[in-house]
Design brief:
By secondary structure, this protein is α/β, with parallel strands linked by helices. The strands form 3 sheets. It has a 5-stranded mixed beta sheet. Helix 3 links the parallel strand 4 and strand 5. The protein starts with 11 loop residues before the first strand and ends with a helix.
Length: about 150
């Protein structure tokens, strides 16, 4: 499991817009990665909308924000269009990144156990070190808290 001040694992994933996103290409910038379970579900939609509402503030501050889930780029594109999302959505269909960040975990619903993404956000500093981690995220106020924490790194 990743800890504060550990080096964020590098990765390259496709975005919903067809471009490739490589974390270490952003060295020197502050990066927010929010991992979420599934496109177009109630909680995930609220979280993506909350980050989207702050996207211009993040951009103006030079902070890069990306959401990551195991959904395909096609599902991401539909999700983004349907809700007019402003954030970049990255597709981790092989679950390599969710596993390397320790957010692919055993979950339980109605007594059944299954593997899924634990809603988690990582704030990564300009040296690609983890500056903050929010695990088992509660959505109300979360994007604001992440933004305020990111501003302190500037």
């Amino acid at each position: 499991m990743l800890e504060l001040d550990s080096t964020a694992p590098d990765f390259e994933l496709p975005a919903e817009n067809g471009e490739k996103f490589r974390l270490y290409s952003l060295k020197g910038k502050i990066v927010v990665l929010f991992f979420y379970p599934k496109d177009d579900t109630a909680g995930c939609t609220k979280e993506a909308l909350a980050f989207s509402h702050l996207q211009s503030e993040f951009e103006e501050s030079g902070i890069k924000v990306a959401g990551i889930s195991p959904d395909s780029t096609e599902k991401h594109a539909k999700f983004k269009d349907k809700h007019d999302l402003k954030v970049l959505l990255l597709s981790d269909v092989e679950r390599l990144v969710v596993e390397s960040y320790g957010v692919w975990v055993e979950k339980s619903m109605y007594g059944k156990k299954y593997k899924g993404v634990e809603r988690t956000t990582f704030l990564i500093n300009t040296d690609m070190k983890i500056a903050n981690i929010w695990r088992k995220v509660k959505i109300p106020g979360h994007a604001d808290a992440v933004y305020n924490s990111a501003l302190k790194l500037l």
